[in-house]
Write a structure and sequence with these properties.
GO terms for molecular function: dihydropyrimidinase activity; metal ion binding. By secondary structure, the protein is α/β, with parallel strands linked by helices. It is built from 15 helices and 20 strands. Helix 3 runs parallel beside helix 4 and helix 7 runs parallel beside helix 8. The longest helix is centred in the middle third of the chain and has 17 residues. The strands form 4 sheets. The protein has a 7-stranded mixed β-sheet with strand order 3-2-7-17-18-19-20. A 7-stranded parallel β-sheet has the order 8-11-12-13-14-15-16. The chain has a 4-stranded mixed β-sheet with strand order 5-4-1-6, with no helix packed on it. The structure holds N-(aminocarbonyl)-beta-alanine (URP) and zinc ion (3 copies). The site of one zinc ion has 3 residues, from loops. N-(aminocarbonyl)-beta-alanine binds next to loops.
Length: 499
């Protein structure tokens, strides 16, 4: 029979407003939102949400499950990673297809689908990395947009020789994205500087995790962020800066917006919830646990600064860059920080960390919280209103949230397949009491019961309304009237003959 679920007595929180309503779901779709819906169905499973918030499930815009990286593979695969996501109130992830130089984007896409489809427990989608440039890439991008539901491509200014594009290639990729109606995402760090300075660090004898930050301080991220925005603005291509990790990068995003460029900034849970002072921790294993690119910043006021911008609308939405490695994997870089696999957790804890540091701290209201954890992602990546809102006809991906209950984050109790948690010991207000994926209760007061392989690949169409309306405005280029000009009639300097 049909799967029926009635969520009674809660307060629905959408990005635009908050209101008291019951929510009735059937076969994975929200069918009714309104007062006193008891009569709608006699055989529905009823859950009581009195005194609780009923919010659209989180959308994590940025994950790397089972990513092959640094000669090893990220510990959270598509099963454990999406299970952890659901445990924390995130009901959809957008992961990255990320092949190396000269690898076919289409083949890589199929490979990643093959890894994900049998394992994912929640709905998901893919961004695709453009890690090299050529005719085949140019063609594959079109196929990915038209046939595979991909509407976002990530380009790297870092990871020299592995993923990095030159500025002219970046510009071509931007032009292609714009032509196809796909959003251009950029990993903004200066890869040449990082390569040169990390070598210098090693020569100076700085081989520990602190060297990872010291050779790529925040100016290196700020420069690349400003450069990427400058290049995108030359071809009037909307741009999305992934993992905004520093004040410098955030300021570059703000400057771009002030100038009227279409720029989106994505801070991640890691940089909103903790900082880079951990790279100087006495325990090597602890310090290495935080190594990611771009690094967390040693300036401890960074997380609150970024949270404030996120609350204000200067930054837009959040992901996690979830890309986890166990201690023995991190130990590949035990004597050389350049070999520490880059990546940290976040997919499970993002919802709680942002509630704690944003809403509980008094920086943002619950509606803005829903916007930055779910709705804006759905709108930007063009899956709204299927996702990102509690509304009739939308997917029943829902979180019943207890804003007052607390939990303490720990690797001992988390659902990740990894032995470290960068938020260890952080007490968070805000707990997902119930998590509903495709209308199915998968988390019930701490009990997690997911279905392996039940997540669906969610195809996304080119440019969302949000992105499109903003570039249309900018596309109106002002062309000056031609000036009638007298020809030059003055003296001409004679250059000496070449010897
Ligand atoms: O350290 C990181 N961020 N690992 C994942 C790859 C990336 O650049 O997002
Ligand atoms: Zn990146
Ligand atoms: Zn330790
Ligand atoms: Zn990433």
């Amino acid at each position: 029979g049909p799967r029926r679920l009635l969520i009674k007595g809660g307060t629905v929180v959408n990005a635009d407003r908050k209101f008291r309503a019951d929510v009735y779901c059937e076969d994975g779709i929200i069918r009714k939102v309104g007062c006193d819906l008891e009569g709608v169905s006699s055989d529905a499973k009823v859950v009581d949400a009195t005194g609780k918030l009923v919010m659209p499930g989180g959308i994590d815009t940025h994950t790397h499950m089972q990513l092959p990286f640094f000669g090893t593979t990220a510990a959270d695969d598509f099963y454990h990673g999406t299970r952890a996501a659901l445990a924390g109130g995130t009901t959809m992830i957008i992961d990255f297809v990320l092949g190396g130089k000269n690898q076919s984007l289409l083949k890589m896409y199929e490979q990643w689908r093959g890894w994900a489809d049998p394992k994912v427990c929640c709905d998901y989608s893919f961004h695709v990395g453009v890690t090299w440039w050529g005719e085949e890439v140019y063609q594959d991008m079109a196929t990915l947009v038209s046939d595979k539901g991909v509407n976002s491509f990530k380009m790297f200014l870092a990871y020299k020789d592995l993923f990095m594009l030159r500025d002219d290639e970046l510009m071509k990729a931007f032009m292609r994205c714009k032509e196809l109606g796909a959003l251009a995402q950029v990993h903004a760090e200066n890869g040449d500087l990082i390569a040169a300075q990390s070598e210098k660090m090693i020569k100076l004898g700085i081989t520990g995790p602190e060297g990872h930050e010291m050779c790529r301080p925040e100016e290196v991220e700020g420069e690349a962020t400003a450069r990427a925005i400058t290049i995108a603005s030359q071809v009037n291509c909307p741009i999305y800066i992934v993992h905004v990790m520093s004040k410098s990068a955030a300021q570059a995003v703000m400057r771009g917006k002030e100038k009227g460029h279409v720029v989106f900034g994505e801070p991640i849970a890691a940089c909103l919830g903790t900082d880079g002072t951990n790279y100087w921790h006495k325990c090597w294993r602890h310090a290495a646990g935080y190594v990611m690119g771009p690094p967390l910043r040693p300036d401890p006021s960074t997380p609150r600064y970024l949270m404030t911008l996120l609350a204000n609308g200067d930054l837009d939405l959040t992901g996690t860059d979830n890309c986890t490695f166990n201690a023995d994997q991190k130990a590949l870089g035990a004597s050389d920080f350049r070999k520490i696999p880059n990546g940290v957790n976040g997919v499970e804890d993002r919802m709680s960390v942002i509630w704690e540091k944003g809403v509980h701290a008094g920086l943002m209201d619950p509606c803005r919280y829903v916007a930055v954890t779910s709705t804006t992602a759905a709108r930007v990546f063009n899956i709204y209103p299927q996702k990102g809102v509690i509304a009739e006809g939308s997917d029943a991906d829902i979180v019943v949230w207890d804003p007052e209950a607390t939990r303490t984050i720990s690797a001992k109790t988390h659902h990740h397949n990894v032995d470290f948690n960068i938020f260890e010991g952080l007490e968070c207000h805000g707990i997902p009491l119930l998590v509903i994926s495709q209308g199915r209760v998968v988390v019930d007061h701490g009990k997690v019961e997911v279905v392996r392989g039940s997540g669906r690949y969610i195809p996304r169409k080119p440019y969302s309304e949000v992105v499109y309306s903003r570039i249309l405005q900018r596309d109106k280029v002002w062309v000056p009237e031609a000036v009638e000009r007298e020809p030059y009639s003055g003296p001409v300097i004679q250059l000496p003959p070449v010897q």
